[in-house]
């Protein structure tokens, strides 16, 4: 889709054809690459040793697409998950803020795994860690390494760790890490994905033994797929479960308040929370989960849908969308949530929940 056919150069020499990539002229992309490299140079104006053998376009890609200097998420933006916040503060944030104290026996692990159902705040935690520890945040989805960067994944991984080491303290967040470090040795496993995995483990080993201030956070919805080598390197493994009732109430309250739509009473919010609770057997709660509760992201979608209620109603009364004023719309009501429940269903299946609990008991960091 980004392909732009070759164009003739302006020089009038018909034989001289210039190619352009993704809508940028060569000059523009050269300039942007140069700027990225300049930003990574040390005080002596030289590029750090680690980056010298890397391809400039990969360094540029990491700097522009994967690196986020201010992820703009703080602990207060995340509902619930007190256990995870406490563990992460002790294990990651304090050591990043005070490396002088956290050495020797106190030296922290460099790998953290966040596992649990999708949409429960794992990425938010990664961003908040970087925000709270004033670290540079690098976000990469492992599946993009194996799909988009076929054959180049290894080089990109090397560039990623190289740039991170020049931007310390750094947090590298690898989403869907299972697709990179999976234990499956399927017949279809390509040589290239095996090499990618090896490169990744080598890079992790490298900074694990050194004094670098880099933390690797892996996130996965399928922890069972991780192999033993991956588990060994991700020393702390935290279960990020579905939100509690209080956390769900917080999300509803917060989102509506932000938009100035908040009019629900506490009892009404409690009602929304009870509607979004999972149903488990009273006799065998661990074994029989009839329906799962809503994730944080499901709750967000529910609020979004409910907040459309007043708008739909105003339009039904014949007001034109172009003439609609904010005052024409009533506040969001409990009835809007009841309607939205028909549209937005929980995205996690009961079976999945059971398997997270199992894995947590076996491999999770429980305290
Ligand atoms: P995950 O990485 O676990 O799949 P995300 O962190 O990307 O999930 O969350 C997706 C969205 O869902 C977030 O942008 C946020 O709006 C909402 N969300 C999920 N969990 C929470 C939470 N605990 N507190 C506040 N919002 C949440």
From TrEMBL:
Alphabetically ordered keywords of this record: ATP-binding, Nucleotide-binding
Start and end residues of each AAA+ ATPase domain: 108-244
Domain of life: Eukaryota
Coiled coil regions, renumbered to chain: none
Gene Ontology terms for molecular function: ATP binding; ATP hydrolysis activity
Presence of the UniProt keyword ATP-binding in the record: yes
Keyword Transport applies: no
Similarity annotation: Belongs to the AAA ATPase family.
Protein name from the UniProt record: AAA+ ATPase domain-containing protein
Residues of the full protein shown: 326 to 692 of 693
């Amino acid at each position: 889709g980004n392909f732009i056919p070759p164009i003739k150069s302006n020089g009038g020499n018909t034989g001289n054809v210039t190619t352009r990539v993704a809508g940028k002229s060569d000059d523009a992309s050269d300039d942007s690459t140069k700027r990225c490299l300049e930003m990574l140079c040390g005080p002596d104006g030289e590029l750090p040793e680690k980056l010298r053998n890397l391809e400039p376009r990969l360094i540029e890609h990491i700097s522009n697409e994967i690196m986020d200097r201010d992820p703009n998420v703080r602990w207060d933006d995340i509902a619930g998950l007190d256990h995870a916040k406490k563990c992460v503060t002790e294990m990651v944030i304090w050591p990043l803020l005070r490396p002088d104290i956290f050495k020797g026996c106190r030296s922290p692990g460099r790998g953290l795994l966040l596992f649990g159902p999708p949409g429960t705040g794992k990425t938010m935690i990664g961003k908040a860690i970087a925000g709270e520890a004033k670290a540079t945040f690098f976000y990469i989805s492992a599946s993009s390494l194996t799909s988009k960067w076929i054959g180049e994944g290894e080089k990109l991984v090397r560039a990623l760790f190289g740039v991170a080491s020049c931007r310390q303290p750094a947090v590298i967040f690898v989403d869907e890490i299972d697709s990179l470090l999976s234990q499956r040795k399927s017949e279809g496993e390509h040589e290239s994905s095996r090499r990618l995995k090896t490169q990744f483990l080598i890079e992790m080993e490298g900074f694990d033994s050194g004094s670098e201030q880099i933390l690797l956070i892996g996130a996965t919805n399928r922890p069972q797929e991780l192999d033993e080598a991956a588990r060994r390197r991700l020393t702390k493994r935290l279960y990020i479960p579905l939100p509690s009732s209080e956390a769900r109430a917080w999300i509803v309250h917060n989102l509506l308040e932000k938009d100035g739509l908040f009019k629900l009473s506490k009892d009404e919010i409690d009602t929304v929370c009870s509607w979004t609770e999972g149903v488990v057997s009273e006799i065998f709660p661990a074994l029989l989960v009839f329906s799962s509760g809503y994730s944080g992201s499901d709750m967000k979608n529910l609020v979004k849908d409910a907040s459309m209620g007043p708008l739909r109603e105003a339009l039904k009364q014949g007001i034109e969308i172009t003439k609609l004023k904010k005052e024409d719309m009533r506040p969001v009501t409990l009835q809007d949530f009841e309607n939205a429940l028909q549209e937005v269903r929980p995205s996690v299946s009961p079976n999945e929940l059971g398997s997270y609990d199992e894995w947590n008991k076996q491999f999770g960091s429980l305290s």
